[in-house]
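In the laboratory, one determines a bound structure by crystallizing the protein with its ligand and collecting diffraction data. In a computational setting the workflow is compressed into a single prediction: the sequence and the ligand go in, and a structural description comes out. We illustrate the idea with adenosine monophosphate.
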Amino acid sequence: MLIIKQPNELRSHIQSLKKLSKRIGFVPTMGALHSGHISLIKASKNICDVNVCSIFVNPTQFNNANDLSHYPRTLEADIKLLENEECDVLFLPEKNALYTNEKSLTIDFGALAESFEGTSRPGHFEGVARVLRIFFDLIQPDDVFLGMKDFQQCQIIRSLVEFYSYPILLHFEPTKREADGLAMSSRNVRLSEQQRNEAPAIYRALCSAKSMINTKPVPEIVALCIQEIENEAELQVDYFEIANALTLEPVNSVESGIQLVALAAVYAGEVRLIDNLLLK
Ligand code: AMP
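The predicted complex, in structure-token form:
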């Protein structure tokens, strides 16, 4: 595996791959890799000639300095995992090198960025979009692999790709879970033993929402699910909502033909966990 730190070096490597008409797959990550990330690498290896993975804890997408400074960093283990998967290129940029000559962001995500993570983490999606534009311009991927665990982020990136007309095929991969249902996340290592034991209540509540969606009114389902999560001593719901899966507008009733998603963000002490489930 080639490890590249300098954007210019990556640019010239990409140029040589493009000359050979290689299909380039890209998996952006913030490291502390787990099986969820690895499933994206595998999906990329399945259909692309060359896979580029980035590890960059992007400061512009953190609105909370404490969250940024405590974000887990496990570079040595990450490199081993990527080597095992026969990832071709690992891009490990530094902030200053990456954000030089950045093009200004002209997209307005509108309502898509004004709910859920957009409300709870002001500026988060702008930071995600800024860094991805830099990555897309540099790597010129044919395919980009993203996890549905970050459901709203998938919609934001879909909108980014459409707005700037990137010739990129997006692939949204299913959420990898622990045996007890907890969505795999780099942040899970920060949970205390009790928080870790309680955290699967988030997925249980999402499953409850799915089982009730055709039989109970949406506001009642939401109230019951919040209750189910907050019955755990250390869990506090930031939001739990049922929304239109395409527009992410919260809904109060079920209409036929509209795909719904339940979205949750929950604090376990200081650690903020997100998860979601398609309901119908
Ligand atoms: P992150 O390193 O958290 O920024 O995530 C990098 C990519 O991995 C994003 O596209 C995430 O949606 C995806 N990802 C994170 N957790 C999971 C998971 N449990 N299952 C599948 N994909 C995931």
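The chain has a mean pLDDT of 97. Keep in mind that any predicted model is a hypothesis to be tested, not a measurement.
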